[in-house]
Predict the 3D structure of the following.
Amino acid sequence: MAEFILDNILRNNVKKLVPYSSARSEFEGDAQIFLDANENSLGSTLNNNFHRYPDPLQKKLKQKLSTIKNVPVKNIFVGNGSDEAIDLLIRAFCNPGADNILIFPPTYGMYEVSAEINDVAVNKVLLTEDYQLDIEAIKDGINDNTKIIFVCSPNNPTGNLLKSESIEWLLKNFNGIVVVDEAYIDFAPIQSWSQRLSEFPNLVVMQTLSKAWGLAGLRIGFAYASTEIIHVFNKIKPPYNISEATQQLALEALQNEAQAKEKTNVLIQQKERLMKDLKQFDFIRTIYPSDANFILVKVEDAKDLYHYLISKTIVVRNRSSQPLCENSLRITVGTPDENESLLTALKNYEE
Ligand SMILES: Cc1ncc(COP(=O)(O)O)c(C=O)c1O
């Protein structure tokens, strides 16, 4: 087993950094009068709401999430979407112009974009034809400057889970950070990798409220990791990265887990129905298995079908430019009515 030592891969400037110390993180207690943060003491035009800076560590939100996800508060980072966690990881561990990350296309686009913004190189090893990790090729894709491997499971845009044995191989044999992006985990019939944090000091699990919880507009994502890695996140994040409004609304949403589960079940049923009904169309060549809230399909002519659906006011995502996704469209599962409209449009395309 490769040895993971956080200090060996943390950037020097981050190691040496004295983080910004905000007024609200320095004081803990029961004061009545807050004259410490240059806020507007008279309040705002919103019934005096939101004139105070928010909790920099989102304690109430983390408490609730901890109960739902069975992850200790000390192992949770809350980000402005999981996209913030991706960016912070790259900034913490990858030296611009020197280090690289490893990704497995076709996959979620932000790993590459975030790396490029930070002038960090991107090594790519394609998934296999059946969209699984190619461990033999991965061995050659890792070098001394590889600091982070991003694994997306269920994978976007292919929809499938990656085999646990392969992810475990990475965790055991790579001495940098292995990120398992579980944005779509609530639609999948498996346990989260967050339940195995204690086994792997180099594991970072990402989840989000944007998918199963239906809160893409709120921008809340999570990273679960060792306390040492969470400390790094907290050291370099903007002090007030989650607004008070967002913290309040996210907490309110998390109170209703049953409703979120119900919606997830409806979407899973709708996905199964779509998978079945899409089989009737000859111009759909392959319907890939999905453990997410979307389906990837390979069609006869993706560009033509994409534009036809637009003409029917239905937008899907054309993923044909991605490797191994020639002529492929990614279709998000809609409401029952939306799915019906999609199927009707597809029937008319055939004629
Ligand atoms: C795999 C994956 N990770 C992360 C994200 C972004 O999540 P968030 O909305 O929390 O930034 C997406 C969004 O589509 C995604 O598909």
